[in-house]
Amino acid sequence: MAQAKINAKANEGRFCRSSSMADRSSRLLESLDQLELRVEALREAASAVEQEKEILLEMIHSIQNSQDMRQISDGEREELNLTANRLMGRTLTVEVSVETIRNPQQQESLKHATRIIDEVVNKFLDDLENAKSHLMSLYSACSSEVPPGPIDQKFQSIVIGCALEDQKKIKRRLETLLRNIENSDKAIKLLEHSKGAGSKTLQQNAESRFN
């Protein structure tokens, strides 16, 4: 009888101890789950800051190279460029880095995709129109929507092999490059239109002198 009571107390102690350990483990797991949500929120916020930095730099650069900047006085343009350079410098002081965890295959895919884009960018000066068409096919390979033009199937398979965060960054880079080309085209057309209008005015003034 005495032995039975001893065994009962021992079992009760083991039960209490295991129950307490289970509760503690459960609380710790719940805390880690909550921290994981906060870590992911931190990464998303940092990525958003990275994107905002890229957008701000692109907008400042676009203003500096806009047609409006060409149509103001030298003094005004110099003053505005000083302000733009100051803003660009302050923007560059913001350093945010979100490292992407990749396996060896994803690392190799990213290098391959980056190399392909860099090769197209290096051809801008030689053949802008062909480079633009090539960039469009690369961008279409990253789009989930039905593309309006051809898709670079090889590039698409390479991008699929990249980490999800890298896929988003590749798409954003292509979007930025295409916007820059579009803005350059508009600036050239406006400049040509301005020159054409100026030539037409000179011609009309010359004709009016002889009439």
UniProtKB/TrEMBL annotation:
GO molecular function, one term: protein-folding chaperone binding
Top-rank lineage group of the source organism: Eukaryota
A GO biological process held by the record: negative regulation of protein ubiquitination
Coiled coil: 25-59, 164-194
KW Protein transport (keyword) present: no
UniProtKB keywords: Acetylation, Chaperone, Coiled coil, Phosphoprotein
Keyword set includes Coiled coil: yes
InterPro entries in the record: BAG2, BAG_domain
Domain BAG as annotated: residue spans: 109-189
Subunit comment: Binds to the ATPase domain of HSP/HSC70 chaperones. May interact with NWD1. Interacts with HSPA1A (via NBD), HSPA1B (via NBD) and HSPA8. May interact with DNJC9; the interaction seems to be histone-dependent.
Protein name, per record: BAG family molecular chaperone regulator 2
Organism phylogeny: Eukaryota, Metazoa, Chordata, Craniata, Vertebrata
Gene name per UniProt: BAG2
